[in-house]
Amino acid sequence: FEQFNGRYDYTAIGNTLNSFENNLDGSFCEILPSSQADLTLAPSQTIIAAYLYWAGSGPPDTEVAINGIPVTSSIEYSVGFTSGTSELTYFSCFSDITQLVLDQGNTSYELSELDISEALLDPDYCANRTNFAGWSIYVIYEDLSLPLNQISLFQGMEIINTNVNETTILLENINVLDNQGAKIGFLAWEGDDALNFGESLSINDNILSNPPLNLSDNAFNGTNSFTN
Fold first, then answer.
1. pTM > 0.85
2. Helix or strand or coil: residue 63?
3. Do 90 and 159 touch, CB atoms closer than 8 A?
């Protein structure tokens, strides 16, 4: 989707709009009206780009707000899950909010106005405990103390579930010249910590992990590697 070359690195913040881990607590079938996360960059780190992603159960809700500022999606993704006689849909949206984050800087970011209440009228979302919504901001920044790097941002949406329990994503146009400092990140929606079915991420058949935060058999565990 985008590629950056220079003395660059990236970070991510975000939060869930679920009040609890939904496969452990079956008492709720709604989402929170908002949630917050803090962006803290060092003075030497200059924002180059900032991208907002949000997702949830049902068809895309293309209009949300960050710190009360309206944000409209420019790209939407949808995937489906067949449960009995129901075809359940889940979505993810994208918006470039670089100027917004440049204006706001290091502060607390609050996402609101994400509404999936109509979709959750279908009881199968909550019966399957796939009633969810959440958001994340990816920030690419320049730091002149860094070595020369290449950052490649790939976008899309794939689903793993009881019907589709493995997926392969082919990433092209990547040259890893040195494994020192090389890294890959991914954004997983509805990743429950306690719901562990041996979820793993492999590159060239090498399973990746960074324990104790992300175990090799529980990659989609609801954690943020940047904030631990």
1. yes
2. strand
3. yes
